[in-house]
Amino acid sequence: MPYGPHVADDRARMLETIGVASVDELFDAIPSALRAGPLRLDGPEPELELSARLVGLAARNRVDLASFLGAGAYRHWTPAVVDQMLLRGEWYTAYTPYQPEVSQGTLQSIYEYQSMLAELTGLDVVSASHYDGGAATAEAALMTCRATRRDRVLVSRAVHPHYRQTVQTYADGAGLVADDIPLVAEGPLAGTTDLAALAALLADPARPVAGVVAAQPNVLGLLEDMPGIGRLAHAAGALFVSVIEPVSLAVLAPPGEYGADIAAGEGQPLGIPLQYGGPYLGIVSCTDPLVRQIPGRLVGQTTDLDGRRAFVMTMRAREQDIRREKAVSNICTNQALLALAASVYLAAIGPHGLRDVAAGGAARASELEAALAAAGAPRLHAGPYLNEFVVRVPGARGVHARLLERGVLAGIPTADLLPDEPSLSDGLLVCATEVTTPAEIELFASALRSELAGVAVAGGVR
Amino acid sequence: MVPSDLRYTKEHEWIRVEGDEAVIGITQHAADQLGDIVFVELPDAGRALQQAATFGVVESVKAVSDLYAPVSGEVCGTNDALSGAPEVVNTDPYGAGWMLRVRLADAGELDALLDADAYDALIAEG
Amino acid sequence: MTVVGERLQPTLFELSRPGRGGGKIPHPPAGALDRIPAGARRVSPPALPELAEPEVVRHYVNLSTLNYSVDAGFYPLGSCTMKFNPKLNEWAARLPGFAGLHPMAPDALAQGTLALLFELEEMLAEISGMAAVTLQPAAGAHGELTGILMVRAYHRSRGDLERTEVLVPDSSHGTNPATASMAGFRTVTIPSATDGGVDLDAFRAALGPRTAAIMITNPSTLGLFERRIGELLEATHAAGALAYMDGANLNAILGRFRPGEAGFDVMHFNVHKTFSTPHGGGGPGAGPVGVRANLVPFLPGPRVLREDDGTYRLERTGERSTSIGRMRSFVGSTGVLVRAYAYLRAHGASGLCEVSDDAVLAANYLKARLSPAYLVPFERACMHEFVASAADIKHRTGVRTLDIAKRLIDKGYHPPTIYFPLTVEEGMLIEPTETESLETLDAFADALLEIAREADTDPEVVTSAPHTAPVRRLDEATAARQPNLRWRGMTGAQTPCPD
Q1: Closest chain B residue to A313 measured between Cα atoms?
Q2: Which of C401, C418, C481, C484 to mutate to test the interface with B (most CBs of B within 10 A)?
Q3: Which CATH architecture does the domain made up of A66-73+350-459 adopt?
Q4: CA-nearest residue of chain B to C476?
Q5: How many angstroms separate the CA of residue B61 from the nearest CA in chain A?
Q6: CA-nearest residue of chain A to C58?
């Protein structure tokens, strides 16, 4: 066993103290009919071989392409200081801070995280984090139902499909209804939430709505009329949940400025690597009146016996270990280490740095838009965007596959991301961030130009 | 010894009848069991209560307890002071720590409740 | 552990000075945001702190020293399995091929990770005797919800809509009833028998046509193997219900008991417990779920599939209509799962069997060393953890388990789990794990015995502990009554910074 300290003498001493002849006797309580047969597993593998195996597996992934893929997870530059801090055993091998006297590091860092994220969302409270943007959005939807005592939520089809599907799963379990709000199909507002349709959905007196969920920017990269959505929701007695992207909150109006009651979203862009999907950082934030409904941990400031300032998990009676079946959520953990990563990231780059990340992405995205349009792939939509948008590409799936061979990960075909939107059958959702280089843009544009020219030469659109 | 002019439930609520209304709270015993009380969740005025059904929650730092209605009736007042100073339930549970005022639906329900002696006996054996 | 008050840190906001720091991100050209309509722009910038890198480092390094951690000392925390976090796993998860892969990358670009995930599912299925595993859930509680939602889908698929109840023992972890509620079930709590196991008669009485599932932790939260598990599973299935196993205590039974083989229909794993992924101060973990064949159709999607040519792919949306759907975005907490994979390959079958053997041995050893000063209410051998009660000490001296826990901090240990499960008076749930040396176990036992003596001779030193942590006991009541959950600018009434 690679990490066990016991040698034969140790085991013998322990057996003697216990008063049994062999460790097998300690397992006597397992009925003989239910004892396991031998386990068939590879290994044990010593570190030398195992490390080579892991390197080999990692090498079978391709991370060297020029990537323009966003769709809910974003490439950013993370200052080296972030991982250097995360490698400290005092952070990553610490336990949940249930004993606050020996956990002030973790507790203060979570309080600082809650504070910094509250500055970003513009709302009163941020929880100590949830699993990811999808689960955070689903739990936000559940919050609206608890708070209003209604059982129906409306979710824009421009919210990330994974988040919508998660809302659906959670809603099914809780006996709630989650209905879609359609998108505008044509014209200058195409690709955004259809407010007229939303108003109609809200107008049914027999089916009152607890919460309206919309994203800013939305999954197609477009900016929504969030104040307008909020007004419609509130006029119908519903709460307004805004799905946010934290870097954009440096420059875009935050939920607190446009009347959202709850904000949910994905904190991965704040210093967390892509890692094929996780572990990520679920953000949940709300106004003061809703704080008792917020799922997950909360860290608060207090004093110790001698009057020193200190931090402690608080309002614990909402949580599962105390409230049990009446708990606000069953969540038992938070993504503490990822909240720490986000905090170190924000501390390291500062407010001006965060603005530069957002603005830098916007600048590169403008260059990308121009280059792709010149290459024959103009934007599909007319509305404003921050750093992600859809371009019209005939035969998008095929083009995307061939661009891979040329070393370009050209975003994602919208037909794959949103198969239920017929207006998106021939597009690529692409994004740029502060790390996108002019050379990468040029590679993408020229590869795309020759792909599209090749299609034209071959005779017609596929 | 608990106040003799009140009546009690097995779930450690007390009730003081004042004409066709009554005032409700929790006993010192309940408050002591919970520890430092940090939050009291009470129903809005106008809400109808059913005897023995839950009507609210009392939270302490490490525990939570449902509140059970000693009688049926309509809520006609709540102690707003508790939102800013829930600790008064620990220090003065029968006075300033009162929780609800209700308009009684059926005074006969009071007969089912414990008197002071019976409640004292209950907590002595528990 | 340390001198009180030493190395307490101001907050980032108190360290901030306008103009400090920055310079890590290139400044984009002016006008980059001009195309964003004014109505969508932020009016006032976020008031985030401004610090230079040296201050950031000092802040986080000094804060970290206020933490207890496995790397620094022993956590005898029952039900948490605070075993050593292997450093190879940290290195592996950071390999750029793993860390830099986008979750929506085409399958052809992700073959390494997909192969790893597929193999990890197979290993977990083998360990648990289950037919299939999902790696999607982000935590144990998330796995519980996934499992119970699958149970719900199973019954509904059979037109069995009357099953509205989930049975749990009174010793269960709070997540079990909370999970049941989130899935729309009513929890029925069954009292434990006097020997600490399930009361089989009470369970039989409660099982019926309204029972959707039972949720059992085995070994139980008292650290005892459920001897009547065979009969319980039989009774459950005879009533048409399914059996869920909370796998939090898997560290006791690796290689000895395979839940799926024994008759459990579904279970979750806590990889941050049994399989050594680090706790991170409260997360991230991961909670894979294993199922028997009857529940495979309902697994969350997308599953990882292996084609005939040996390549791997993710299921496409809608490819399996019986799935309960998604529990989260993307495929799972892959970074955590890479660590679990490395752990399992490092150990192999023989290593995992040794893990459980040593974990159970160590727990029984501590139990033997601590009696009779601490009462252990159950005679028989414990598994990987045991509950010790300080009820005697409390009645004799007034010193409670809470005080003993805080005094352990002065002795250099993190306290064990206290007041859980609630069924034991003044309980301490102690789990040493297999990675603590005999010297550590002996020193810990000595410390607890010394505290028991202090309770008699000098109770005040115990009830006012800790004396040597960075802070003393905290005012948790005020924290809950007047919640201060975020920094708000300096005001005259601000608590002064520690110096």
Answers
A1: B61
A2: C481
A3: Alpha-Beta Complex (3.90)
A4: B61
A5: 7
A6: A85
B106 to chain C nearest CA, in Å?
31
Using DSSP's 3-state secondary structure scheme, residue A437 falls into coil
Do B86 and C476 lie within an 8 Å CB cutoff? no
The answer as to whether C495 is a domain residue is no
C-alpha of B41 from chain center: 12
ipTM of the complex: 0.97
* Whether residue C281 is found in the same domain as residue C397: no
- Say whether pLDDT at C491 is over 60: no
pLDDT per residue over A236-269, tens digit each? 999 999 999 999 999 999 999 999 999 999 999 9
pLDDT tens readout for residues C100-117: 999 999 999 999 999 999
For chain A, the structural domain boundaries read 66-73+350-459, 81-344
Nearest chain B residue to A324 by CA distance is B64
Domain presence at residue C281: yes
Cβ-defined contact of A322 to B39 (cutoff 8 Å): no
Report the chain C residue with the minimal C-alpha distance to residue B36. C477
CB within 8 Å: C22 and A33: no
Q: Which among A47, A68, A51 has a CA at the least distance from the CA of A59?
A: A51
- Domain A81-344 fold is Aspartate Aminotransferase; domain 2 (3.40.640)
Q: Which residues of C touch B38 (CB under 8 A)?
A: 477, 480-481
- Residue C316 is encoded by which pair of tokens? 């496409």
User: Is C474 touching B (CB cutoff 8 A)?
Assistant: no
Q: Give residue C367's domain range.
A: 352-476
Identify the CATH number of the domain in which residue C270 sits: 3.40.640.10
Instruction: Test B39 with A316 for CB contact under 8 angstroms.
Output: no
Shortest distance, CA C30 to any CA of chain B (angstroms): 50
Per-domain residue ranges of chain B:
7-125
- Using the beta-carbon criterion (under 8 Å), do B63 and A322 form an inter-chain contact? yes
Contact at 8 Å (CB) between C118 and C312? yes
Query: What's the pTM value of the predicted model, to 2 decimals?
Result: 0.95
Residues A288-326 as b/e (b if ≥16 CB within 10 A, e otherwise) read eebbbbbbbbbbbbbbbeeebbbbbbbbbbbbbbbbbbb
CB neighbour class for C206 (10 Å; exposed up to 12, middle 13-18, buried from 19): middle
**Does C476 lie at the interface with B, CB-CB under 8 angstroms?**
yes
C48 — contact with chain B (CB < 8 Å)? no
User: From the CA of C395, how many Å to the nearest CA of chain A?
Assistant: 24
Residue type for A140, please?
A: A
Of chain A, the percentage scoring pLDDT greater than 70 comes to 98
For chain B, say whether C104 makes contact (Cβ under 8 Å): no
Which CATH code for domain B7-125?
2.40.50.100
Which two three-digit tokens encode residue A53?
Answer: 């195996």
Test C477 with B39 for CB contact under 8 angstroms.
no
For chain C, what is the domain count? 3
List subunits contacting chain C, requiring 3 or more Cβ pairs under 8 Å.
Answer: A, B
Report yes or no on C47 lying in a domain: yes
Give the pLDDT band (50/70/90) at residue A457: low
Neighbours of chain A (3+ CB pairs under 8 A): B, C
Sign of torsion over alpha carbons C221, C222, C223, C224: negative
Q: Cα separations (Å) of B101 from B20, B41, B70, B73?
A: 11, 14, 12, 10
Q: Are residues C229 and C157 in the same domain?
A: yes
Q: At what angle do helices A336-374 and A438-459 cross, to 10 degrees?
A: 50
Which residue from B85, B93, B87, B78 is spatially nearest to B29, judged by alpha carbons? B93
Q: What are residue C387's DSSP bridge partners?
A: C429
Smallest CA–CA distance, residue B7 to chain C, in Å, is 29
Judge if C321 and C372 occupy the same domain: no
**Do C391 and C336 lie in a common domain?**
no
Task: Report the SS3 class of residue A174.
Answer: helix
